[in-house]
Amino acid sequence: MSAENEPELLIKKFRRLALIAIFLLAFTWPLGSFFIWIFLGATVYFIFLAYYYAPRPNRERKSESFSRKWDKDELREQKKPTVRLAVTIVIIVAAFILFILVIIGYL
Fold first, then answer.
1. What is the percent of the chain where pLDDT is above 90?
2. Which residue, 87, 96, 20, is CA-closest to 12?
3. CB burial class (10 A; 0-12, 13-18, 19+) of residue 22?
């Protein structure tokens, strides 16, 4: 196994484990809160690990003059992380609200 493929394999492994934990959570939902908290915690943990091991974009800043013109490709590359970050934040907030509504409905 090469060092380049190792993070990709870890990401795939943690995503699969998160899916398995979600299915186990769904199957054991009627059994009680003990199983719900265990599998919910495992799901959140595996999702966190998959996100943690995901490759990050290189954020090195280059010294640039004001007179330099930007290429369209460079502008697209700058917008991609911003859009991805915004989508990630919206998904996390929606999941948190859904989680709170499920907990309130369960009580």
1. 1
2. 20
3. middle
CA distance 46 to 8: 14
| Helical packing angle, 6-27 and 33-52, nearest 10° | 160
Helices (H), ranges, 28-71? 33-52
32 Ramachandran zone, left/alpha/beta (phi>0; psi -120 to 50)? left
Amino acid residing at 12:
K
Q: Give dist(CA 42, CA 38) in Å, integer.
A: 6
Q: Is the pLDDT of residue 34 over 80?
A: yes
Q: Is the pLDDT of residue 100 over 80?
A: yes
Token digits for 83?
A: 């859009």
Measure the CA–CA gap between 63 and 66, rounded to whole angstroms: 10
> Residues 78-93: pLDDT tens digits?
556 677 778 888 888 8
